Structure formats: structure tokens, C-alpha cells
Amino acid sequence: MINKGIPIIDLTHGIPPQDIRQAARVIGNNYRYFPPGTVHVCVVDPGVGTNRRIIALQCDTLFFIGPDNGVFTQLLNSSESVDVYQVENQKLFLKNVSKTFHGRDIMAPVAARLASGMSIVHVGPRIARDACALISLRDPIVKRDGIAGEVISVDSFGNLRTNITKAHLSRVDLGEKPCVTLRSYAIGFSSGSYEDVSDTLPTAIINSSGELEVCVKKGNAARLLRAGRGERVFVHGHRSGCQDADLAI
Q1: Residue 67: φ, ψ to 5°
Q2: Residues spanned by CATH 3.40.50.10790 within the chain?
Q3: How confident is the model at residue 187 (pLDDT cuts 50, 70, 90)?
Q4: Long-range pairs for 31-36: beta carbons < 8 A, 24 or more residues apart
Q5: Alpha carbon 25 to chain centroid distance?
Q6: CATH code 3.40.50.10790 for 20-131
Q7: What is the pTM of this model?
Q8: Alpha helix (H) ranges present in the chain?
Q9: Is the pLDDT of residue 246 over 70?
């Protein structure tokens, strides 16, 4: 036990196994909501036991520990100042390090010491930010008259979360009533909350992460539309037959 007084928040265990891309999005969308001094341990690590590096990052007053496999892509691509260190000080690890669980044997002990006040410089040598692994997050295609994106995840409610964001929508003139098309279904757009949409019909809204999301308030959009990750999604200006909160079948 290094410090039993450290509060622990389990942000999510809902990332599909080995899905580095989705883990990178979750980190990028949520880290700013945590208080100064927070240490984020990110264990989506299909390369565990190989020669992939473990890295620790300091971004202002926040710390991050995880594999150097692209999971920190959004953080490393940001305009913020980020210092990166290679985690290799074995004195900080558990005595017996397994080949299959570095999250427990290396990352968690180092995180506990950082959270207890240890300087990040003790984890190992500093490395160049641009030497870290990055992955493509497949941004949507934005054109003058619309946006082409895709479903990036399906949450436990069956909501279809896309890689189209509020920022992308602001770059296109879609008029007052944009329309979303997914698998030949024309879906209306609501600028409100879940309370403002139909109980049983799919509607597109902007979720808490600023993403375009297709939801059914009292149903399951993924099941109803028979759609999942990778499904193409299009946003365009209002067209005939695409009415608010209406599903054209």
C-alpha cells in the first residue's frame, strides 16, 4: 500500500477491448474536468509485455500514465504545453512485474507516487513530444454543403456517438434545421436535450462531449437503426422529407 488516502475515480470500463482510438477520444474529451494534481492512468494496452514504452505526461497541473501506443494522441496534438517522460525507474514498480499486467505492476504504483507528491522527473528520462506514437482518429470530411462522418462508439443506452462535433457543424451553413442521414434513414436534428426529443423516434443531438449523437429517448438507436461502429453518417441542410425528430423509413 503506497497511499490509501488517494481518492480513485473509475472514469470508464466501457471501452471495447484493445480499442486505442476510442480510449484516445475518451481521454481527450474528459481530462479538463479533473482538478489540479489529478493523475490519469490509461490502461488500454494491447502491446503489454512487448518493447512498447510506458510514458508519463505532465500537462500543466495534470499527469497521465499509459502505454506509448497512441492513447494520448489528442493530448499530444493539442496546443497545450506537454512534458513527456519514459517510465523506466524500476524502483517505483512492484517487486514482481508480470508480462501481462503492467497497469497493476508499473502504472498504478508510479501513479500513486505521483499523486503523493513525487516529481515526475523521477519516473525516467524526458523524451521528445514528437517521438511519441500517434494514431489517426479519422476526422470527418467537412465541405461547404455538408459533413461526412462515422459512428465511433455505441454507449450502454444504444446511443450512436459520432466523430462529428459541434465545432465541425459550426463551420458549415446548414440552415436552421440540419438533417442527419444514416443508412438511408433521414433523422431530424434537435438543439435541445433528451427531454426535447421524441420518446420513440431517432433524433440527432449534441451530447455532453460536444459530439453529434443519434439517440432514442425511450429506446435503443443502435438496435432500431441496426447500426454500429463504423457506420457512415452525413449531415446536410434541411431537405424535403427530413422533418424534426422524424424517421423516414
Answers
A1: -75, 150
A2: 20-131
A3: very high
A4: 31/59, 31/62, 31/64, 31/75, 34/9, 34/62, 36/60, 36/61, 36/62
A5: 2
A6: yes
A7: 0.80
A8: 20-30, 73-76, 102, 108-115, 166-169, 221-225
A9: no
